[in-house]
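Look over this record as teaching material.
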Amino acid sequence: MQHSDPAYDITTPDALAALFGPVGEASIAKERDHIDAHYRALIEASPFVALASVGPDGLDCSPRGDPKGFVHVADEKTLILPDRRGNNRIDSLRNLIADPRVALLFLIPGVSETLRVNGRARISVDPQLLARHAVDGRLPKVALVITVDTVFFQCSRAVVRADLWNPDRHAARGSLPTPGQILAAATQARIDGETYDRELPARVKTTLY
């Protein structure tokens, strides 16, 4: 089934520019090539960032979260992002071996503006760097050392339209498929979904770091 007519596709920069018009002055002025005091405050208030990368096998965008300020502002051109325990797919890290470019989107609960950072990342196992990001004596296996190319805030429209921070709009857990149900379906029940869901809360709690 064809969902749209390719004849209506926008395929050139000129066609895009004609459709959207000129960029507002504020949208240009807010972009910096370094982290100033205001942008530093936003990064230090954020407990969550989405990390986007690209590599030979395609794109990846994955969540990173910790108590606010977990992304350390080392200086106006450098961020340090500890890589916490996960599922060991390491899709982002594999991408960075091939292509250092990254994009980050910081969210701050209760704040409608987001913060965008574009830059290049190195994967480090520097002992002093890892020790700085230890939690309860547990060190991250690696940390990303990110050189900032551009940083700017994103206006509030997307978060306002989504009503993202309104608890009355939050989905009830029971209204959606559980991780166990998804895995059971994906593996033709080789993974016991009920057991997976039952054990998941304790597993997450004991393997955060």
